[in-house]
Structures are given as structure tokens and as C-alpha cells.
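User: C-alpha cells for HTH cro/C1-type domain-containing protein, please.
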Amino acid sequence: MVLFRRLLGDVLRDRRMQRGMTLREVSAEARVSLGYISEIERGQKEASSELLASLCLALDAPLSAVLREVSDAVALEEAAVAATPISVTSRPRPGEVVASAA
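Assistant: Done. Predicted C-alpha cells:
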């Protein structure tokens, strides 16, 4: 799911930034290529459970806390979509006069 991948990347990036770490530092600590971490943070790649565990260890963040944060973000996105009504407007038929309040 693209939504989950994007939100996971956002959470990991936020955690990294809060710790004041660079991608290079996380890469060295987690033993994962800098480019791959960057792609995960941008929501372009999926992180395996093993890779995610390594990133969380490097960020000194419990895996459960990261997943809970992502879950909360997913719930907010779902609520926003559910609360956004989709209005369907009909077009006037040829020759039909539409009244204006102006």
C-alpha cells in the first residue's frame, strides 16, 4: 500500500531529524545503504521487517512505537478521506435555464 509506505517514510524521517542524525549516520549505524534509506524515507521502497528493525535500532526508537505512530497517521488519513464528502453536480441540459443568486 503506497499510503503505508509513504507514512512509514515520514515517521522514520521525523525520528531521524528529531535525533539530529544525517542519512549517512543512520546508514552507518543500521548497516544499510544511504540511498536505500533515502528511498524508504521518500516512500519509494518497502522496508522488510529486518531492515525496519535495523533502522529503529539505529534511531534508538522501539519498533512498536514507530509502527504505532504510522498506524495513527494511517488512521488520520482514513478519517480525512471518510470525512471528505464527494459532491456530484449535474450539468444543465441543453436549453435548461439555471437561476443565479447574483
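User: Anything notable?

Assistant: The first helix runs from residue 2 to 18.
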